[in-house]
Design a protein that fits this description.
Blueprint (H helix, E strand, L loop, with lengths): L2 H5 L2 E2 L6 E2 L8 H26 L3 H18 L8 E3 L4 H11 L1 H4 L8 H28 L1 H7 L2 H14 L1 H8 L11 H21 L10 H13 L8 H5 L16 H11 L2 H25 L11 H18 L4 E3 L1 H10 L4 H14 L3 H7 L4 H25 L7 H20 L4 E2 L11 E2 H18 L5
Antiparallel strand pairs: 1-2, 3-4, 5-6
Helix pairs in contact: 2-3, 2-16, 2-17, 3-15, 3-17, 4-6, 4-13, 6-7, 6-13, 6-15, 8-14, 8-19, 8-20, 8-21, 9-19, 10-11, 10-19, 11-19, 14-15, 20-21
Length: 469
């Protein structure tokens, strides 16, 4: 490709089509502005996961940027994806934190629980190894074999379970129960939470398709809720004033030496069952948009849809980075994919720029301190919407894959996942089935994980002993 093609906006001969394909490099000014848009788009959801799970915000931002850069390099600069914090892991991480860092996690004054983070890190690293192994397996035998073991009825039902399992966390934050607020003050929290919720929904619906601002409903909802919370006395700035302008993120080393870490690692890693289909769906979506632009520009199609295995290896590489540093488990972001589709900018160089910005801002102490002042009521309002969307995406996956819900096999697999996952999380002490397995699950099996295992095993029975259609 010529230097001129790389440094100027790519356009058709008629001059009507403008956009950047993955190998294109925009001019410096465009690259900085487009990179900052990508950073802004990932920022609200990425830091919100860190706040909800009490990970260090600075580390999470830095790890997001570095993980994205490593993933882009692993994909040989072919797959334009930005990686941020995944909501899918929140429920099982809350279980881990509640068990192994209970004093810190239940203390509203604490915004960071390093003991719990170190245990979770082992699970994130195991997730990374699973994703990389599956990626190489798909590159060797094809995706069809994986789809038989993890069909849409399993992955879609698991996404639904994960979203609904977080309902308690969202509502506890919304009403102030998470910080044990006095009963006569709870109304303030509920009011702020529902104002935040309604504002976020309105932003997401009525600003859709309005350019960059339409890609930031969570950020706008958080800012709106934050401003509403100030006169109610729910925002405190003491830590912002005391925070340094530049501060070292609080990196932690995974607790490989702790047997509890290995016991919970598999519980965390099994959530990949829900994230692998999500990542693959994002890849197909991006491939369609990129190749449409390439056709309009008279360029050769990129066809990244053929890189399913490599995409999962890149996903695992990102999780390996964040797991080693102490950031939140990652996923490639649909929000950033949508922004690329809107701006018709798929430049890998722009995503590198966004990653560098995230790394730099991870050291910005004042920014981290401001983020940590987000009231739990605002977190709850955002959570009601976001966690519900996770559940609805599970339904959308089942619907889009045209799963036959009149088939007793599909009904059986979906039913046991829903009841064991949702019911177990709501009804059992700490949301854990009392089946203790040495090393793997010495304290019992978390309901979400138990549901996933049971669903996969029942589906395998139907694969081995095929019933008559």
């Amino acid at each position: 490709m010529s230097a001129e093609t790389q440094s100027q906006p790519t356009s058709s001969l008629k001059g009507k089509v403008i956009g950047y394909l993955p190998n294109d490099r925009p001019p410096v000014g465009a690259m900085l502005s487009l990179g900052f848009q990508q950073f802004l788009t990932m920022f609200p959801a990425t830091v919100l996961v860190a706040i909800l799970t009490k990970f260090d915000v600075g580390v999470t931002l830095l790890a997001s940027g570095l993980g994205t850069i490593i993933a882009l390099l692993v994909s040989r600069r072919k797959i334009p994806m930005y990686y941020g914090s995944s909501f899918s892991y929140i429920a099982v991480i809350i279980v881990v934190m509640s068990k192994f860092a209970p004093a810190c996690f239940s203390d509203p004054a604490q915004i960071y629980c390093p003991d719990g983070v170190r245990i979770v890190q082992v699970g994130i690293i195991l997730t990374a190894l699973f994703e990389i192994a599956i990626g190489f397996l798909i590159m060797r035998i094809g995706k069809e074999a994986l789809d038989k073991v993890l069909p849409p009825i399993v992955t879609g039902s698991m996404a639904l379970v994960i979203g609904v399992a977080l309902a308690g966390s969202a509502l506890n934050n919304a009403g102030g129960a998470a910080i044990k607020v006095a009963a006569d003050l709870a109304w303030k929290f509920w009011l702020v939470a529902f104002i935040t919720l309604v504002a976020t929904i309105l932003f997401s619906v009525y600003l859709r398709g309005k350019g960059l601002i339409g890609m930031l409903p969570i950020l706008l909802g958080a800012i709106f809720g934050y401003l509403v919370a100030i006169p109610f006395g729910l925002v405190h700035f003491e830590n912002v004033i005391a925070a340094p302008w530049v501060g070292m993120p609080r990196f932690t080393f995974p607790a490989f030496e702790d047997p509890n870490a290995w016991g919970m690692a598999l519980s965390i890693a099994l959530i990949f069952i829900a994230t692998v289909p999500e990542s693959t769906a994002h890849l197909y979506q991006m491939s369609l948009y990129i190749d449409t632009l390439a056709a309009e520009l008279g360029r050769v199609p990129v066809e990244i849809k053929k890189l399913i295995g490599l995409n999962l290896v890149a996903d695992g590489s990102d999780d390996l980075v964040v797991g080693l540093l102490g950031g939140c488990a990652g996923t490639n972001y649909g929000e950033n994919n949508s922004l690329m589709a809107i701006t018709r900018n798929y430049s890998i160089s722009v995503l590198f720029t966004a990653g560098i910005m995230a790394i730099i801002l991870g050291f910005f102490g004042k920014l981290v301190a401001v983020v940590n002042t987000l009231p739990v009521a605002v977190q709850g309002g955002l959570g009601i919407y976001l966690f519900g969307v996770i559940g609805m995406q599970g339904i959308a996956l089942i619907q889009s894959e045209k799963v036959d819900l009149f088939n007793p096999k599909n009904l059986a697999v979906g039913a046991i996942i829903l009841i064991c996952g949702i019911g177990g999380n709501l009804a059992l002490p700490s949301g854990v089935f009392p089946f203790q397995i040495p090393v793997l699950f010495p304290n019992g099996i978390p309901a979400i994980v138990f549901a996933a295992i049971l669903g996969i095993l029942v589906n395998l029975i139907f694969l081995i002993f095929k019933p008559k259609e």
